[in-house]
Amino acid sequence: MIRKNFRLDHKRSYSLLELDKRAAMSIQNHFGLSNYQMLVLSWLKGLWTGILISLVVHYFVSH
Fold it and tell me: Whole-angstrom distance between the N-terminal and C-terminal Cα of the chain?
């Protein structure tokens, strides 16, 4: 698998989108994940977040 390189611009202010892209790229490079595996990882993260939010809401509504 080909590792993607970071842009080596030394600018100080990053946009939120740029930080998100850099974080995703570093996770992908560190664990050697393909684009499809990153998609599945983000889907599972969303599913897990939804389950946690529903459990918290259920706790506060039922108690």
Answer: 51
Q: What DSSP character marks residue 63?
A: -
CA distance 22 to 14: 10
- Asked if residues 40 and 34 have their Cβ atoms less than 8 Å apart, the reply is no
The overall pTM is greater than 0.85: no
DSSP collapsed to 3 states, 6-43 = CCCCCCCCCCHHHHHHHHHHHHHHHHCCCHHHHHHHHH
Q: How far apart are CA 22 and CA 54, in angstroms?
A: 30
Contact assessment for residue 6 and residue 29, using Cβ atoms and an 8 Å cutoff:
no
Res 33: pLDDT: 95
